[in-house]
Amino acid sequence: MSSHSFSERHQGKKEGEEIRHILKTIAAKDIPSLIQETIPENILLDKNWKVVEAASEEDFLSRFQELLRKNILCRSFIGKGYYTSFLPSVIRRQVLENPAWYTAYTPYQSEISQGRLEALLNFQTLISELTGLPLSNASLLDEATACAEAMLMTYRAREDKAQNVFLVDRHIFPQTLDVLLSRAEPLGIEIQVQTWSKAVFSSPYVFAALCQYPNSEGEVLDHRVHLSFARKQKIQTVMCSNPLALTLFTSPGELGANIAVGSTQILGLPIGFGGPHAAYLAAQDKYKRLLPGRIIGISQDKEGNDAYRMALQTREQHIRRGQATSNICTSQVLLAIISSFYAIYHGPKGLQRIAERIRWYTYLLVDAFQQLPLRVIHTKKLFQTILLEVEDELQVRSVKTCAEQARLNFDYPASRHISISLDEATNLSDLNNILNVFSEALGIPCPVVNRESKFVFSEATQRTDSFLN
């Protein structure tokens, strides 16, 4: 018997013992029983299932087209952090469809190209200027996990180690709250979901607080008073902000927030079945050693030329696990670069024009809805999202049925509430289609969109400083 075969047998025996030990520890009879207990019955394959014979490429594509034709394509107005946007063709061709860009999922190697590092530095600059905060990392996985990262940062930075309450404003996206709850539980962090007020900030156990800006109901609230009071109580503050909205409204940094997070999906990225999309995290300088992910910086080579480099890396893939500040973050490099190129393509004035058009259509729709027998919950300080209240659940079901027949998807956050979010792709035809749905569902004449309506926008939250110069 060769030493090689003996080694293989010994290794196999050792692995078998380990598997038996694991099964015993989790009280499982054997691997088939474990699979039976773990995999949901509706997706578990039948015991008699057999692998079908391989199809030719042509047969497969034909079958695939048949399946695709079963999809019902709808126009989405659900929102909740996911919006339709237009990616300029030149960026689609030269970046998204270019293997020189899309083959590198994430740059771990020190010899990564200078061009990619420069593009990531552009992303950091974009985020830093929009948020009004001096420090930004080179993207994260998605908005929800970025909020979880911010929670962990503030938890590590808290002055009183007895503090364990993370305060979350109730008008936050539901998927974000779910991720926060999941991440907080094993660390012993208590999540309290409440409306921001001085009373809740007075608790001695709160170490940080988070809000959505604009919030899940479309309101753009001026949080200066709350942020100032939190600062006096030594409570750290996080704002989850829409980057396109920040071209119109006061930045989190100017409002007084310590950290800003959010998704850049609205900057030219396709919805992509819910993501992930490149998220961002910007913070005050004091957090730089706690920032998850990595930061791209500018150095000099031996000849004195500018050289881009990874200036700070805090992921466990880059440094020793015990010293890493994060184990849930990853970086959507390609998507971060695309969103930064989207901003470069449009420039500050172009981004503001897109945001202004969304806001204008939002108010046009609000004006039209006020002609219907329903209640518009908020009519002032709005961006992108409109929350409606109807008489009863029967009307909600009627609206949903008519919307689905018209291939429009709305959000239904409560039994009597309907939420509609507009985006870059919204046009006057969309507004009329939305109103036709409500007209049919409520059995009344359809109101006309009045393009001559005049709205006075609130100056309190209007952005006054320049950006992306």
Structure at a glance:
By secondary structure, the chain is an alpha/beta fold. It is built from 14 helices and 15 strands. A 7-stranded mixed beta sheet has the order 2-8-7-6-5-3-4, with helices on both faces. Strands 11-12-15-14 form a 4-stranded antiparallel beta sheet, with helices on one face.
SSE inventory with pairings:
Blueprint lengths: L2 H23 L5 H8 L18 H12 L6 E2 L12 H8 L2 H4 L11 H18 L3 E2 L6 H15 L7 E5 L4 H11 L5 E5 L3 H4 L4 E8 L10 H9 L3 E6 L10 H4 L3 E5 L15 E5 L10 E7 L5 E8 L19 H37 L5 E2 L8 E5 L3 H13 L2 E2 L1 E4 L2 E5 L6 H15 L27
Please describe what this structure looks like.
With 469 residues, the chain is of the alpha/beta class. The chain contains 14 helices and 15 strands. The strands form 4 sheets. Strands 2-8-7-6-5-3-4 form a 7-stranded mixed β-sheet, sandwiched between helices. Strands 11-12-15-14 form a 4-stranded antiparallel β-sheet, covered by helices on one side. Helix 4 runs antiparallel to helix 12 (333-369), helix 7 packs across helix 8 and helix 13 crosses helix 14 (428-442). It is globular, with a radius of gyration of 26 Å. The termini are far apart. The model has no long low-confidence stretch (mean pLDDT 88).
Sum up the structure in keywords.
single chain, 469 residues, alpha/beta, seven-stranded mixed β-sheet, four-stranded antiparallel β-sheet, 14 helices, globular
Give the neighbour order of strands across the main sheet.
2-8-7-6-5-3-4
Assembly form of the protein: single chain
Question: Residue ranges: pLDDT <50 for 5 or more in a row?
Answer: none
* Main beta sheet strand tally, sense and closure: 7 strands, mixed
Task: Report the sheet-strand fraction.
Answer: 15-25%
Q: Total number of β-strand segments?
A: 15
- Inertia-based shape: globular
Q: Mean pLDDT, as a whole number? A: 88
Structural class: alpha/beta
Q: How are helices and strands ordered from N to C?
A: HHHEHHHEHEHEHEHEHEEEEHEEHEEEH
Helix content: 25-40%
- First and last CA, distance: 74 Å
Q: Helix count?
A: 14
Q: What is Rg? A: 26 Å
